[in-house]
Amino acid sequence: xxxVSSHRSRHARSRAKSAVSVGLLLLLGACTVGPDFETPAxxxxxxxxxxxxxxxxxxxxxxxxxxxxxVAGRDIPGEWxxxxxxxxxxxxxxxxxxxxxxxxxxxxxxxxxxxxxxxxGGALLPQVxxxxxxxxxxxxxxQSGMRGKGSVFDLSKPSVAVSYDLDVFGGERRxxxxxxxxxxxxxxxxxAAQLTLTANVVTTLIADASLRAQIAAxxxxxxxxxxxxxxxxxxxxxxxxxxxDVLLQDSNLAQSKAGLPVLEKQLAQNRNQLMAYLGxxxxxxxxxxxxxxxxRLPGELPLSLPSSLVRQRPDVLAAEESxxxxxxxxxxxxxxxxxxxxxxxxxxxxxxxxHELFGAQTAAWNLAAGVSQPLFRGGSLLxxxxxxxxxxxxxxxxxxxxxxxxxxxxxxCLRAIQADAKILAAQAEAERAAARSLExxxxxxxxxxxxxxxxxxxxxxxxxARIARVKAQAQRHADTVAxxxxxxxxxxxxxxxxxxxxxxxxxxxxxx
Length: 512
Known about the structure:
Blueprint: H1 4-30, E1 69-72, H2 87-99, H3 101-121, E2 127-139, H4 141-144, E3 151-166, H5 171-237, H6 243-277, E4 300-303, H7 306-309, H8 314-335, E5 340-349, E6 363-372, H9 380-446, H10 452-486, H11 507-511
Parallel strand pairs: 1-4
Antiparallel strand pairs: 2-3, 3-5, 5-6
Helix pairs in contact: 2-5, 3-5, 5-6, 5-8, 5-10, 8-9, 9-10
């Protein structure tokens, strides 16, 4: 018999070895191969344009002609379209967000991506399974060893099996990290879809208002030219004007009338597009619209700091998550080259009758540990890792391209808004000058001081100036919408976010 002290010493050494083994296992389990993802730094610039800050715009004495001032560093409201102060816009944007099927598809894709990540997270936990077999066996006399006698009996075998693949080098965690990045990418794709939809609804309503104003102006012109034609015909009957003047006016009126169906076609197609954004069919058009005079051009425009833009634009954030996923794939490919450890255990019972299953003599169990190491795969694992590195480099380049495009969009909008204000001021002045010139030329024609050809030329200039002024009014509103979209749309300031936009903790996060 061994001394008690020797037994205790041996037991202590055994416990120490077990503690070391567990500690080593935990240390290995904490190892995660592959590069850790680092959020790309924002571009180190102070402004969006080459001249630094964007100044205030000029004003014009027409509807929608007020000056606009850029406020650097001011945040964008979550419902930026309300700055136009139109209940119709508010209602139709809300309807589009409720009904558009593309948003439903994007939300479903987001749920699917998140559930996929959660499903993969189960690989970090032990897998437990239950099996139960009931077998009826017949043994022949030859098998039983008893001549002339066989036997028939039942065998019950319930068992619980546990298996655990140790994520020693973090390959599974990198895979989950990639799936979580894919889910976040889908989240920002949803935000981008919502931003695009709201901007399209407002822009389409502005285009609708512009076309209606152009149609109204064209009808006014047709009405005035029709009255002028009737007057010329009466004057021709009295011999006061030549027939060529009547024919010229008739041709001018026909040209004005020919332009009306073009505008009406554009309006109808624009309405169909608006219905599609609202999730309606074209036949479900209820006629909701806004007028240019109804819209209120925002006087102060929030302008995010350049360092904040990359944290606001959904497309930039989606590209960042694509980069994070590509970066995680390097870890997955690296772990595939390293050993894999697994543990398994099973405990059950085997008995000839169910009531004997839980007896002391019927227990059956096993414990196993395994390790596998790829030795030769023809270089496939190495090339897979190199491909993952190249994929990460590609995603990084695409991210930089997306950032450059984002800054370009903002710079374009700033230039457009400043130019729009100047164009509207010039077009308003041109319209007033053309109206005065038309009045003077008509008066001169009445007293014989001018030809009707001159009057028609001036009249055409007035028509063009009036239509151009309407387009310039609409363009100021449209480019203001484009600026809000270019800056990210303020989705981070929404009071009520859809449940699909709120991330849930993953299994990997719970385990960590």
